[in-house]
What we know:
The chain has 9 helices and 26 strands.
Amino acid sequence: MSDENYLCSLPTEIILYIFTYLPVKDLIKCRQVSIRLKQIADSLIRSEGLWREHCRKDFSNVYKIARYKSRPGMLWYNIYRSLSLWSKLAIAREEYDEFASASDLNNEISNVIILKDGIIGVHTQSAIVYYELETLEKAKRGAITGTYLRYLENDDTIVILNYNLQLFIIRKVIQNPRFETNITFDNVKSFLLVDEVIYFVTLADDIYVCQLENLSNVRLGHSDDGIMSLSFCRNKLHILTFQRSILSYNEGNITHKCTITSETNLLNQLAEYNFLETLDWRIYNHWMYVLNLKLPNGPLRDIIKVHVYGDVVFVGSNWGVLRIYYSPYFDGLFDIYDSEPVRQFNFMDRSDCPVLTYCPIIQIDVCECEDGHTVIVAMPKKIAVLNFTHSFKRTASVAMLPYNDIPKTKTLRIQELNCN
């Protein structure tokens, strides 16, 4: 008896048990053996625990944020399928839209964040306004008025840095009534929100961590080299200084990892420690000049924003050019300079006046949807929306399931927070 026939002869319960341990590629092969095995394999699609584990194994560095920002109702199976399709972005169909057009200085955009349940937080010069991802219309959730330097938000917390360098941490969900609902720190120049903690740096280059559960804070250490930015990867906090040193915080100590010199691959070194998103690219260009390294011509010479999303890298320029790369590695090293983008877009407003065509891409965010992706690209005057969809021939061998019914969820309604 062949292996295929032997497998088909087994009871359904045993086949199901075997299938739960197979890698996705092997599971797909089993679906092609017989109608019975296909039906058994397809029955696992609604097994949220199984597909969450597949996502964790195959997309470990992005699966959590992909689920959080995905369209409402997405199953883990749909998340896995959508993440797998990024490698085929070059042949995906695209649709373009835009919203939040700024008609005056007060409405100019500073940041945009895709939140849970299809909500988009848009940070303008005068407020933080919320939109529905599905309709691109303003959401019912009230705006947070005020002028702020930086804004971040997750399920439980809103983090705001104002122009007086005061950091406001506001808890939206209080698990214990004995805990504080908000806290303020003075003289903060930068911060990093990671799950349930916030790391922040003061003007004196002291590093602190604040636990969001109870808003307790601890000083982690100090750097004499001048801290430029923070990053977090491989479960460690990393620090980049103006002297081109990379430090790491581990078990109560700040240790020196490396110093960037002309002998090192600058771009790969920064990518390894996850600094591409928090880096000031003007400083990067200065370092290239100091180290006597050659800058590329074209849009990559004017990089202002990089967003890394698993194997996908989005690169935005000062002039509204967005390049999307998939796994941009050359000779095993991260290198967007010698790699070709799979897609490229130009959002520059056409005008005879060069001043009006200055269109820096200041933020990029991603949302997964069924058999596709939505990419949000923020510029001071508008937010562009790119919807990518992958088309497949619908046959009996393609398992597609509708979304589950989505229960309505309550969100905190904030009319106004005075954080000036």
